[in-house]
Amino acid sequence: MPRVDMIVKAPHFYTMAGEGVGYQSDVAMVVDAGKILAIADVSEVEQEYEAETILVLEHHAILPGFIDAHMHTSLAILRGGGWRKTPSIG
Question: What does the alpha-carbon distance between residue 6 and residue 8 come to, in Å, rounded to a whole number?
Answer without folding.
Answer: 6
